[in-house]
Amino acid sequence: MASIPPVSITIDRGGTFCDVWAHTADGKETIFKLLSVDPASYPDAPTEGIRRVLEQITGQSIPKGQPIDGSLIESVRVGTTVATNALLERKGERFALLTTEGFRDICRIGDQTRPDLFDLNIRKPGVLYSQVIEVAERVTVEDYVLNPHPAEIDLSDPDLVKTASGEGGTSTDISRFDKVFEHVFDTTISGTTITSPMLDVKTVAAGGGSILSWRNGLFVVGPESAGAHPGPASYRKGGPLTITDANLFLGRLVPEKFPSIFGPHANEPLDVDVVKQKFHELTDEINDTLENKLTAEEVASGFLAMANETMSRPIRNITEARGFAINKHNLASFGGAGGQHACAIAQILGMPRIIIHKYSSILSAYGIGLADIVSETAVPAAYAFSEKTLDTVLARFEELKAQTRAELVAQGVQDGLVEHQCYLSMRYEGSDTNLSILQPQDNDFRTAFVETHRLYELAGLPPKSAFTGPALVIDNTQTILVETGCKVSVLNSHIIIDLPSKEATSSDSDTSINPVELSTFASRFMSIAEQMGNTLQRTSISTSIKERLDFSCALFTPDGKLVANAPHIPVHLGSMQFAIQHQHALWAGKLQPGDVLLTNHPECGGTHLPDLTVVTPVFAPTTTTSSSPGQEEAQDQQQLIFYVASRGHHTDIGGIGITSMVPDSKFLWQEGLSVRSMRIVHGGVFDEAGVRQAFADVVDYGPGCSATRRLDDNVSDLKAQIAANQRGIVLLQAMCREAGVPRVQRYMYGIQATAELAVRELFRRIAEERGAKESLSPSSPSPSHSSSSAPSSPPAAPAAPVVLRATDYYDDGTPITLAITIAPDPSPTPSTPLQYSATFDFTGTGPQTLGNMNCPPSITHSAVIYALRCLINLSIPLNQGCLAPVRIVLPRGTILNPTAGVAVCGSTIASQRVTDVILRAFGAAAGSACDEYEDDGCGGY
């Protein structure tokens, strides 16, 4: 025993597997995996891993459950989620929150983020603190005022320390490395924002254990995970089909090479037979809804394609979304399932090379063993950068170096081996977007920041200079965004921007809908809307958009119908398309590339006036051949292929009040800026003077009106909305170059048909539950897949319509009355399966008021689409298809369809009441609370 060299053990405990790497001083290595959770075999995976390592190096049996002799262990490093689980389970140290009197619930309220926008049974994570102590004090502009005087509080109580443990799930982690590690200083875990420097790692709920399902005509991967217990179907514990099973079924895994650690006794290989059985059963279920039948192999391949697309999305977000070209990166793959997907993901993204380490399957454990001991610390600093303040910054760096050096030496690190990296968080004045700048050798932080930010003053660019985007070029009157890969050449009087060439996509004559591609395109469209939202949040100025997240971004068809709406604000989900359709009809044939429109009027598809909608048409080149006497000539024309739009709540737009949420307004003109339609960008030139004048003209609306007090913020946020739209345009045009416009648009309409199918299925199910006598097949064919397959026998006569009723009231007694009639559509032929639709009839609703609780029609449509999505309770695309089988009746002159010119800023209240009435009619939820209308403090109506 004495001759055995000491062993160093590193363990990474993941959601499915616990990876173990052990090595001794003589170079011998031990590598294996075990399930992270296997209660029938061992209580704790890391402890079991250590026991097995010692058994292997000593050659002696060590009984389970017995104390382990640690004399042969030199070190143990464990990567685990203990700290994260303590946060998730709220089992960390007990502490109290001291806050200003009146703000005891500030952490509980948080911002406008909701854990799940469509969950009717929200369970927000609890707060971290055990007690709140309110302090009678104020923080004013001039000083900090405390009354009474503070009491001394001892925070050294030894009884505060506790421990916690837990387990994780299965996911894919993604990060970017370019010579230096990229850090973030804010991250959110289980609803809690953590302000601490950490590596910028993005996690997506798609991995080997992600569960596969077929929902409403779409292949769905995750976000639910089978974990380690029961695990995938092949693990012999009765688990569901997962990505691992799909790889096994298609021969991408060799069962004989997989560790025999499965089954009730953890000693059996993967079960191939049960995987084959389950995939054939799932294929039969899918083929029941399709005319063009799929094989089980095609189904498994489809799920893998969807998983690859899901894993590609965050890679785009950390590269393209930040201005880095994906094709300039290599893909380093690791993890047990990484090698099975690396080639497909690299091909999707156009990455030229894949790097796979020999220990890639246990790379996290291997990396833990090789990792340096690191001490990180940060201190707040607020300086206007100058030579004088730089000296102060450098002095602070030396203090931090001394502090971290002492911490490392205390952990046994030799003083001479300590190295330091210093970062300075910098931003332009007026911006709150920071960049972390690594200390240059010459301490020229200013140059390093400017080079990183890539902001050029137009007047300072000499002729013949050139650079490549991404970059911003500015002067006193304009801002020019240079996209990634675009090359700028500066001349005497103007600049030239050359765009990177793209290979033309061949024409697409196939008009069929492939369910695998349908799922992939649905994911791509939603990803574009989400990236638009990320751009808007990062580039906006106002607290309302940047912190309260009161905005939405969406994509629309060429005629203005909703295609994809990132799940931001419920009231925007179905209402924005009415604004787009109004602008489309108003500007038909008049728009060109580089045009941007602004609207917020409730009669033009708006909600309340503070919600400003910025609309941008998306064009793609198309070539036509024109003939004239004696010659034929090919002409390039621009085809309108999409609209993109962003809607953001502007805190102040003028009016008779000090904010745009006026409690006593009676007419629309009293509530601030109202714009039916305004072209704010024409040919790529922002009409800032016109925008500022429009805000200034509010003072002439009527007695007591004033202009906005935050005009610069309004202009900046509009520019941010324009930038968000431009981001969507770039991504849509890239998709069209890749797949071709006809193919993209075909799947665009196919996704709408899929959403329609999901809503019709909901109506069918409710009709059956509430009294429909017709016996229907489990599902009806999707319009995007087939409409000609016949059932085995003709359906019986249609059942009588089902009517659901509900009424709710405003505080003043004004009723909102709803009757929902669900009935089968007339069948074109006796053999056609029944399709159900519904009429939402608000007849009986009270009249409009001489106040501001009136509700524009677009808001009621939003409430309907939101309620339907909540009732479906599955991840489906949010688009016009949800309303295709719906008819909404809103009598004119009622509070839900008021006449022109009435005040509407209180529609925040109305939207909640309408939603409550709909959910009550379906028997889905009781009436909720309402919006904090006094100060708009809770938002999120």
TrEMBL record:
In this chain the Hydantoinase/oxoprolinase N-terminal domain maps to 9-148
Chain ranges of the Hydantoinase A/oxoprolinase domain:
168-376
Here the segments flagged for biased composition (Low complexity) are 777-791
Q: Which Pfam families match?
A: Hydant_A_N (PF05378), Hydantoinase_A (PF01968), Hydantoinase_B (PF02538)
Q: Output the GO biological process annotations, alphabetical, semicolon-separated.
A: glutathione metabolic process
Per its UniProt entry, which superkingdom is the organism in? Eukaryota
One GO cellular component term, please give it: cytosol
> What family does the Swiss-Prot or TrEMBL record give for this protein?
Belongs to the oxoprolinase family.
Q: What is this protein called?
A: Putative hydantoinase b oxoprolinase
- Name the source organism: Diplodia seriata
